[in-house]
Amino acid sequence: MRLLEHHSIVIRGKALLTFLLLFKQDFRWMAIVDPEVKFFHVLDRLSRDNYKYVQCCLLCLVEGIADTIPFIFSAISEELNILLNGGRTSSITSEFDRRINRPEFETLQQGGNMMYIAIVLDILQAQCIKSRIVTYGFLKSIATLIDNCYSGTASHEDEEEGLYSQTNFPGAEEFLKALLLIVESVVSSQKHLLALSETFTTVMLPVLLHKARGAGASADIRFLSLKIFTDIVVQYLNDDTIYEPAKEEGTTKQLQELFLRQLFPRLLHLL
What residues contact residue 13 under an 8 Å CB cut-off, 6+ apart? Predict the structure, then answer.
């Protein structure tokens, strides 16, 4: 890791390319290197490097990391499908799984691919990577995982409204919280909120509102869901390019329908 900040330009660049090859071999290396040395914070510092060679090597690494995101989501989705079908998470069998040790995900890290969501959280620490990976596909994948993950005990009303999924497994709440923290990280960037306003409005906001309403969810999950929902909505309502009451079309129409059909009827349950 010290080589990333070596005085030699060539060595800094070669170190970046070495990590690229390592991550291409197995994306789980990212979960091992970051907690020990804050790897992704170092990448942000290197993004301000004055030498083009280092910048080119960093760009290759960023692109390589971005290419691994679909594989991470695929591994998580496969594990989630096993749980949906009544299966159990796989046991720890590799050295990678033994080394991925996160106190905040104590239950989730007992086994299975669900733990890999921590890698996505790590990646978002680097602004140079976040700006590259946050796309419609990224948000859609996160929203789908949130929608299919249920923690707590479902009420009869939840089941009737379709807010309940059978995906209630050991570590489900930790997994759901990690997903919400990813959304919160993305929402903290005004650039992403504005550029992907239609995606947030149609894909993410309804899912967040469902989680905020879920009677069986913990108070922490409901609060975090409602907080993120509010952060997004307040930003959009104060932006004339996104919400213009005089023009009932586009994102304005989508937001109004969301408020009238989903938010207002549930206000008593949210308060």
Answer: 53, 54, 56, 57
Q: Distance between CA 14 and CA 25 in Å, rounded?
A: 17
Confidence of residue 109 (pLDDT cuts 50, 70, 90): low
Q: How far is CA 37 from CA 1, 129, 228, in A?
A: 7, 17, 29
* N-to-C CA span, the chain: 49
Q: How far apart are CA 170 and CA 192, in angstroms?
A: 33
The predicted structure's pLDDT at residue 156: 46
Residue type at 38 in one-letter notation: K
Give the pTM: 0.85
Residue 141's H or E segment, with its range, is helix 136-148
Neighbours of 90 (CB within 10 A): 12
Residue 113 has pLDDT above 50, yes or no: yes
- Alpha-carbon distance of 179 to 146, in angstroms, equals 7
DSSP state of 242: T
Q: What confidence tens digit (pLDDT) does each residue in 63-107 have?
A: 999 999 999 999 998 888 877 676 654 555 565 666 666 665 665
Among the listed residues 106, 14, 90, the one whose alpha carbon sits nearest the alpha carbon of residue 51: 14
Other C-beta atoms closer than 10 Å to the C-beta of 85 total 8
Mean pLDDT for the chain? 83
